[in-house]
Write a structure and sequence with these properties.
The chain has one domain. 87% of the residues lie in helices and 0% in strands. It has helices at 10-66, 71-89, 91-119, 125-147, 151-173. α1 packs across α2 (71-89) and α3 runs antiparallel to α4. The longest helix has 57 residues, at 10-66.
């Protein structure tokens, strides 16, 4: 009689790893969304620098192989490397700027929704109060985003945590 090794299904393992990864990402976004946004800006800066280095390499290869200069490649590579370095160096300032832009957008959207709710005639009181409540929530989220934290990433983090926990519970119930 031969023994048989029972292996978990690959989809099952993949789902568990994916859920744990999303759980960790959600926890990071909930606990430190500002730092996560700064890191994202730094990663974007590194990507732009790598693109600039590739363009510089391309320029040098053209110059070496064909003895011709492509000044557009040289200029775009220098600009890309400079912009990438600026993004990396100014990542925390860009994070604050993004936070203000999102916050002001939410406040303006909330004020706009309240004006719309006040200007619509012949609406039911439930609809009116619902629109006013939504506009107040938008304004509060905008103020929260400006003064405290990045609410958009905080909400995304909470959704990721709940979703991944639900997936994990589902995986272990099988």
């Amino acid at each position: 009689m031969k023994g048989k090794i029972i292996k978990p299904n690959d989809k099952y393992k993949k789902k568990i790893i994916e859920s744990i990864t999303l759980l960790i990402l959600g926890i990071i976004l909930v606990t430190n969304s500002n730092q996560a946004v700064t890191i994202i800006f730094q990663i974007i800066g590194v990507g732009i620098i790598l693109f600039g280095i590739y363009k510089l390499y391309h320029y040098l290869m053209l110059k070496k192989q064909f003895k011709m200069e492509d000044s557009d490649s040289l200029i775009s590579s220098i600009i890309s490397i400079t912009i990438g370095l600026l993004i990396i160096l100014l990542a925390s300032i860009l994070e604050v700027g993004l936070r203000y832009i999102i916050g002001f957008y939410l406040i303006i959207n909330g004020i706009s929704k309240s004006f719309i709710a006040l200007s619509v005639k012949n609406q039911s009181p439930k609809f009116f109060y619902l629109n006013i409540l939504v506009s107040i929530i938008y304004i509060l989220l905008g103020l929260y985003t400006i003064f405290i934290a990045n609410a958009a990433f905080l909400i995304i983090g909470i959704i990721l945590i709940f979703s991944s926990l639900l997936d994990l519970v589902t995986c272990f119930k099988k």
